[in-house]
Amino acid sequence: MGRRRGGPPRGARPAKSKPCVFCKENISYVDYKDYNMLRRFTSDRGKVRARRVTGLCPQHQREAATAIKRAREMALLPYVVGR
Amino acid sequence: MLIVIPELDEEQVENTLGRIRTIIERTGGKVGDVNHWGRRKLAYEIDHRADGFYVVMDFTAGERTLVELKRILRVSDDVLRHMVVKLPPSYAHRPLPEPAEAAG
Q: Phi, psi at residue B29, to the nearest 5°?
């Protein structure tokens, strides 16, 4: 009992405030043609990664999601990986 | 952006693009950059085809351009898939890193 020492409470992640990568590079339009860049925001199954994983701001997360969907339509990105 | 079927040769692709160009110009649009990505593997099969010829075209549209263009693109058998996207005014031509030289 009472073995736990100080530090952040169990389960809590240390607070991090990483700025959104698009904001940082001042990109206003997320291009669907740049599928290699978009690949960073999809999981290895081809799903769109959640914002808490991508670290994007709301606007850019939304734009990135739209861009991924456009890229999928044009067969630049897969809808499903490994089936 | 459009995907042309891979069975065509360069000349036939040019013909298809020429047709599209005429439509755009006839309806009061202007064709800007035409970017051939070339033959590329598709991320998934479309009509049992594993690859296609990608072309990205920049153009301005007149009043009737989009209606006409979409109708033609839909019915032409050479075009596997197409998409017309309105670009934001701030869109700058930034060359894509690694300009899609994937195997056919």
A: -100, 180
Question: What are the tens digits of pLDDT across the range A10-41?
Answer: 666 666 677 888 888 888 888 888 888 899 99
User: pLDDT tens digits, residue range B39-66?
Assistant: 888 888 888 888 888 888 888 888 888 8
The CA R_g of chain A, rounded to the nearest whole Å, is 17
Q: Which residues does residue B52 pair with via DSSP β-bridges, in sequence order?
A: B40
Q: Are B88 and A28 inside 8 Å of each other by CB?
A: yes
Nearest CA in chain B to A69: B83
Rg of the Cα atoms in chain B: 14
Rounded to a whole number, what is the distance in Å from the CA of A48 to chain B's nearest CA? 16
Q: Do B85 and A70 touch (CB under 8 A)?
A: yes
